[in-house]
């Protein structure tokens, strides 16, 4: 992890952007750090003008601590920096998103994100991941939640605790690599057929869902995460508002 | 869109959860509404105890407006409600995520999300989507950013303005459905081979990236979005902390 570079002062070209922000009575805006690959909201804090300026110049998420009354670069003590790829502003200019790549866990508890507690609306209870490193109760978007479900089915099968004794379809696929590969090829063919036979959008979405699910089971069988696949895609197609990247051969 | 149901009062089982929250000097916490399928941060506002209570009871994102000094259910005038599937809390209990399914655009400008302005760190300029309905400068996570890139390649090819006269690989695939289907089947086979021939995790991630990219081009060719595919997967596998769902036949 690179040591943060403290900017000496605001560079003039940043002034226009910073002048645009609508600071609250304490001179702050909300700053939300979001994982560029998984979409996870990593943490939320506040930022003053100097913190936003530092984030834009160093590419490391920087905030203003209301309790300690000072600017802090996330990771400056733990080494768990949050590398910011681009900064976004909301319609009324008082809230920022730092779209980012975290280096290590984002939370001081060592959880991957700060949002590891879920409110149970029926019981009123707070459900927390058993271990902080677990994502059991973190807000996952659909594809990553599916990945978590597949991992749970695998764990259940390995513990011999499948629901009602009958192994899940996921467990059957994981136990039978030949069947799994047969299904991935078959679903790819069915997806192609929706185009070839002009079967319509609903069938295409359904077959794409089949293919993605089976491909994700195949990735689980090899211990590969969707985050790693996303990183490959980002390295091939991604552009960043902050890092000026050397021109790559066009891949898309 | 359902009319919001105003809860008469806090139900007792919610008190424990609400007591847990760390309200600021104005009795507020930060509330971030995030799209459950795409991961987009839709909007950020503040919530008081009554607003969080109402969100948990109605399943519709509700906030406290600091300027109007009152509780408001997002969508109560526009009809553009945000259906909340689950609520998450951060480590120091002063920030919530409403993981949600928006009904219509989240922003009052009719943009899909409020974060449609991007800071350009090299020029200091603010880049805004040409039209509010566009997601050109919204914070997209990798897979959805790739979908946007594919759509841009298609638009460039249709406008005859491909870079340097040479059509992109994406444009070639879109112009040749036979080639596109051949590639999707081939990449599915190559992904399977990483398991069959034990080629290792790096190859598996790379082939999965190939397959996902080509499948996404095939979806673009049919006008199907990754969001629609995600919705299919959520309807098959998803569970919600707020909606009590009827038991479904197990699919995973
Ligand atoms: Zn550490
Ligand atoms: Zn705002
Ligand atoms: Zn934390
Ligand atoms: Zn199928
Ligand atoms: Zn409307
Ligand atoms: Zn907090
Ligand atoms: Zn807005
Ligand atoms: Zn190939
Ligand atoms: Zn390949």
Automatic annotation (TrEMBL), chains A, B:
Transmembrane segments: none annotated. Keywords: Amino-acid biosynthesis, ATP-binding, Histidine biosynthesis, Hydrolase, Multifunctional enzyme, Nucleotide-binding. Pathway: Amino-acid biosynthesis; L-histidine biosynthesis; L-histidine from 5-phospho-alpha-D-ribose 1-diphosphate: step 2/9; Amino-acid biosynthesis; L-histidine biosynthesis; L-histidine from 5-phospho-alpha-D-ribose 1-diphosphate: step 3/9. It comes from the Eukaryota. It catalyses: 1-(5-phospho-beta-D-ribosyl)-5'-AMP + H2O = 1-(5-phospho-beta-D-ribosyl)-5-[(5-phospho-beta-D-ribosylamino)methylideneamino]imidazole-4-carboxamide; 1-(5-phospho-beta-D-ribosyl)-ATP + H2O = 1-(5-phospho-beta-D-ribosyl)-5'-AMP + diphosphate + H(+). One of its GO terms (molecular function) is phosphoribosyl-AMP cyclohydrolase activity. In the C-terminal section; belongs to the PRA-PH family. In the N-terminal section; belongs to the PRA-CH family. GO terms for biological process: L-histidine biosynthetic process. The keyword ATP-binding applies. The chain holds residues 61 to 312 of 312 of the full protein. The keyword Transcription does not apply. Residues 43-116 form the Phosphoribosyl-AMP cyclohydrolase domain. This is Histidine biosynthesis bifunctional chloroplastic-like. It comes from Micractinium conductrix.
């Amino acid at each position: 992890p690179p040591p943060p570079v403290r900017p000496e002062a605001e560079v003039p070209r940043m002034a226009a952007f910073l002048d645009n922000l609508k600071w609250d009575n304490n001179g702050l805006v909300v700053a939300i750090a979001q994982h560029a690959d998984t979409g996870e909201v990593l943490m939320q804090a506040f930022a003053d003008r100097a913190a936003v300026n530092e984030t834009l110049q160093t590419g490391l998420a920087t905030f203003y601590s209301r309790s300690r009354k000072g600017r802090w670069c996330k990771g400056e003590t733990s080494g768990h920096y949050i590398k910011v790829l681009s900064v976004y502003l909301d319609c009324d200019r008082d809230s920022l998103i730092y779209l980012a790549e975290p280096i290590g866990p984002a939370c001081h508890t060592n959880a991957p994100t700060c949002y590891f507690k879920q409110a149970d609306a029926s019981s009123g209870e707070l459900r927390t991941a058993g271990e902080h490193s677990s994502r059991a109760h973190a807000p996952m978007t659909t594809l990553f939640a599916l990945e978590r479900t597949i991992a749970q089915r695998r764990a259940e099968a390995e513990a011999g605790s499948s629901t009602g004794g009958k192994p899940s379809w996921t467990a059957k696929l994981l136990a039978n690599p030949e069947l799994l590969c047969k299904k991935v090829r078959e679903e790819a063919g069915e997806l192609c057929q929706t185009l070839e036979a002009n079967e319509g959008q609903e069938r295409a979405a359904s077959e794409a869902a089949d293919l993605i699910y089976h491909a994700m089971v195949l990735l689980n069988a090899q211990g590969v995460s969707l985050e790693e696949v996303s990183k490959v895609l980002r390295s091939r197609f991604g552009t960043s508002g902050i890092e000026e990247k050397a021109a790559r051969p066009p891949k898309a």
